[in-house]
C-alpha cells in the first residue's frame, strides 16, 4: 500500500500513484535494501503490529479460543471482520 507521506493516508488510486514513480536502478534498490535492514517474516514473526494508517483500524477481540489437534483451529465467529478478510 502506498501512503501519502504528508498525511499517512493511502493514495486513492494505488495504480495511478505507482505509475507516476520512476524506475530504480539495481544499485539504488541495493542501497535502499541495505538501509532498511532485515525484514521479519514467517515463523520468526512474533506478533501483528497495529495498523499505522488512520483509515485502517483493526479491532481485536480480547479472547479467541484455539483448539490444537492435528492442526490449529480458530473459531471464525470469534474473529472480527477485519481479521477474516485477510
Summary keywords:
alpha+beta
What do you see in this structure?
- The longest helix has 11 residues, at 26-36.
- By secondary structure, the chain is of the alpha+beta class.
- The relative contact order is 0.12.
- The chain is 24% helix and 12% strand.
- The model has no long low-confidence stretch (mean pLDDT 78).
List the helices and strands and how they pair.
Layout: E1 3-4, E2 9-10, H1 14-19, H2 26-36, E3 66-68, E4 72-74, H3 81-84
Antiparallel strand pairs: 1-2, 3-4
Q: How much is the radius of gyration in Å?
A: 18 Å
Number of strands: 4
Question: How would you write the strand order of the largest sheet?
Answer: 1-2
H and E string: EEHHEEH
Major sheet, described briefly? 2 strands, antiparallel
Strand content: 5-15%
Intertermini distance: 14 Å
| Number of helices in the DSSP assignment | 3
Determine the structural class based on helices, strands and strand pairing. alpha+beta
Helix content: 10-25%
User: Mean pLDDT across all residues, rounded?
Assistant: 78
The low-confidence runs, each spanning 5 or more residues with pLDDT under 50, are: none
Choose one word for the global shape. Answer: extended
Précis, in short:
The protein is α+β, with helices and mostly antiparallel strands and 86 residues long. It is built from 3 helices and 4 strands. The two termini are 14 Å apart.
